[in-house]
Amino acid sequence: MEEGCGVPGTLPCTWDHLEAAGHICILKDAFDFESPSEIANLIAAENVEAALALHLYRGGRLLQGHGIPFGVIFGGTDLNEDVNQGEKNKVMGKVLEEARFAVAFTKSMEEMAQRQWPHAKGKIYVQSQGIATVPNPAFDWDAFLQRSEINQSADNLHVFLLICGLRQVKDPLYVVDVFSEWHQEEPNVYLVIVGPEVDPVFTREVKAKVRRTAGVRLIGEMPQGDLHAVMKSCFVVVNSSVSEGMSAAILEAMDLEVPVLARNIPGNAAVVEHGVTGLLFSEPQEFVQLAKRLVRDPALEKEIVANGREYVRTHHSWQAERDTYQRLVRMLEGSSGH
Questions:
Q1: Where's the Glycosyl transferase family domain (predicted)?
Q2: Strand order in the sheet with 4-8
Q3: Distance of alpha carbon 254 from the chain centroid
Q4: Would the pLDDT of 146 be above 90?
Q5: Distance CA 326, CA 236 (A)
Q6: How many Å apart are CA 174 and CA 240, to the nearest integer?
Q7: Which residues pair with 125 in a beta bridge?
């Protein structure tokens, strides 16, 4: 019988793991559904037998009460922000009661969830994100710079890359003003923001700001292979989020041997050890200080890159992630074999 995995807005790599185990998966974005009844229609039309949701509130609440077994993956904002809103907290507790399992990216996320919902203690598993990067070998970096209106002939060009969906929690404008001031002193540094337009109102704000800010560029969503190629060629990957579960972009940068400069928030500090696997900043001025330090200290850059790569290889194995998800999905099948 056909095995359907409805996956509202989950990680495409998790999907790969499940397909590799012989499941047929349907990848859906939770934002595309207005109500659980639309999910019921999807389940009936596609003969869905089990589901996996990313984000306890956004994805998980859509899966309640349909009579199909499901698991959830904590996203980040569910544990960092939504828990503080009474109604959402209650809904997420109910989702956890019904879910067969829940996956947390870090030990601290697991502890946070257990404090909020003690009844879920036995069903939370910790599995860090597995990372595999595949840069497109045919990608043309010079053409990319040209398209971004970046002066390629600038002596000693340094491109800082900020990868994020355009929504407020990612706070892409956090370092824009200080970066622009620095660019005016040193025209060879550029900040490029890359990512999909998630929140239309906020996207307009970001576009307007970038248009009038020297040294900062905004590029739309890119295919993953191209994005990895851009990461590989840039100088530093930046993360300025207010809240993160576990940033895939940070881990991918480490895998691609690119230094990481990240905002000092719990989700980032869980993977970036300051001065060892990357650098952490707490305010915009400190961001510029650390960015300048990286430009002027190639030995530090080299050390951070080596440590970052070692960290990802050791703690974010793609194969280990695959084994975990294939094992957990067997729980949804209601048997250990298959």
A1: 151-310
A2: 24-28, 4-8, 50-54, 70-73, 101-104, 124-126
A3: 14
A4: yes
A5: 34
A6: 6
A7: 103
- For residue 102, is it left (φ>0), alpha (ψ between -120 and 50) or beta? beta
Provide the pairing of β-strand 260-263 with 236-239.
parallel
Residue 238: both structure tokens together: 């930046």
Please tell me the distance from the alpha carbon of residue 308 to that of residue 303, in angstroms, as a whole number: 9
Res. 12 pLDDT band, cuts 50 70 90? low
Q: For residues 242 and 237, what is the distance between their CA atoms, to the nearest angstrom? A: 16
Spacing of C-alpha 52 from chain mean position: 17
Cα 211 from chain centre: 26
Q: Pairing mode, if any, of strands 4-8 and 24-28?
A: parallel
**Using H for helix, E for strand and C for coil, what is the string for the chain?**
CCCEEEEECCCHHHHHHHHHCCCEEEEECHHHCCCHHHHHHHHHHHCCCEEEEECCCCCHHHHCCCCCCEEEECCCHHHHCHHHCHHHHHHHHHHHHHCCEEEECCHHHHHHHHHHCHHHHHHEEECCCCCCCCCCCCCCHHHHHHHCCCCCCCCCCEEEEEECCCCHHHCCCCCHHHHHHHHHHCCCEEEEEECCCCCHHHHHHHHHHHHCCCCEEEECCCCHHHHHHHHHHCCEEEECCCCCCCCHHHHHHHHCCCCEEEECCHHHHCCCCECCCEEEECCHHHHHHHHHHHHHCHHHHHHHHHHHHHHHHHHCCHHHHHHHHHHHHHHHHCCCCC
Strand ordering across the sheet containing 216-219: 216-219, 189-194, 158-163, 236-239, 260-263, 279-281
Alpha-carbon distance of 212 to 61, in angstroms, equals: 41
The structure's pTM equals 0.79
Encode pLDDT of 276-326 as tens digits: 999 999 999 999 999 999 999 999 999 999 999 999 999 999 999 999 999
Distances (CA, A) of 81 to 5, 92, 229, 245, 260: 28, 12, 33, 11, 25
Q: How far is C-alpha 54 from the chain's CA centre?
A: 11
